[in-house]
Specification:
By secondary structure, the chain is of the alpha/beta class. It has 2 domains: 122 residues, 3-Layer(aba) Sandwich (Rossmann fold); 69 residues, no CATH class. It has 9 helices and 5 strands, in the order E-H-E-H-H-H-H-E-E-H-H-H-E-H. Helix 1 packs across helix 9, helix 4 crosses helix 5 and helix 6 crosses helix 7. The chain is globular, with a radius of gyration of 18 Å.
């Protein structure tokens, strides 16, 4: 299967771009969605998280208390590595299975941490949805109803924009109208179709 990685910082427009590919009939696997699925009630990852951190990580209904765990990780950086050691292998395996089952000519893997978690090992080509930082701040704060300071903190923990630009095979600038974004995606879609066809033959 020909896999195209799609990434970008917070507020860059990854979802808008992946929705466009989906509308063209291309399968989309979202790493964030998979990450939420693997910690649902009854899943092995949730059991291991509870075993490692304690019952406080669960809400009364048995679901993961994401806010409490997020705050714990923020205060105890070493806990982040422990959590990643539990979840990342399971997330990766689920992503591989979903990619393999895609029925479209090629498939999009959407991941905000595409480069950081070395998910590029699963991809043939990587597309960055790029946005100036001031637009990231505006879009993300409006979408999430969060302060600029909070969004800035999130951005500071993400891979620098210039490094993502360096690692990406294709860069699309999302700094204007959606029609401008779609006009940039259209030729890339045709290119990915051609590349996938050549790879399959």
């Amino acid at each position: 299967m020909y896999v195209v990685g799609l990434t970008g910082g917070i507020g860059s427009g990854k979802t808008v771009a992946s929705d466009w590919f989906s509308e063209q009939g291309i399968g989309v696997v979202d790493a964030d969605v998979v990450a939420r699925e693997v910690v649902q009630v009854g899943q092995p990852a949730l059991f291991h998280i509870q075993q490692q951190f304690g019952d406080w990580v669960l809400l009364e209904n048995g679901e993961l208390n994401r806010r409490a765990l997020r705050e714990h990780i923020f205060q105890h950086p070493e806990a982040k590595k422990i959590l990643e050691n539990i979840t990342h292998p399971i997330i990766r395996e689920s992503i591989i299975q979903k990619l393999a089952s895609a029925q479209s000519p090629y498939v999009i893997l959407v991941s905000p941490l595409l480069f950081e978690t070395e998910q590029t090992h699963l991809t043939r080509r990587n597309l960055l949805i790029d946005t100036p930082e001031h637009l990231q701040l505006e879009r993300a704060s409006q979408r999430d109803q969060s302060s600029h300071q909070h969004i800035q903190t999130i951005m500071s923990h993400q891979m620098p924009r210039h490094e993502k630009q360096r690692r990406a095979d294709d860069v699309v600038m999302n700094d204007g109208q959606l029609s401008h974004l779609y006009a940039q995606l259209e030729p890339l879609h045709r290119q990915y179709l051609d590349d996938a066809k050549k790879t399959a033959s």
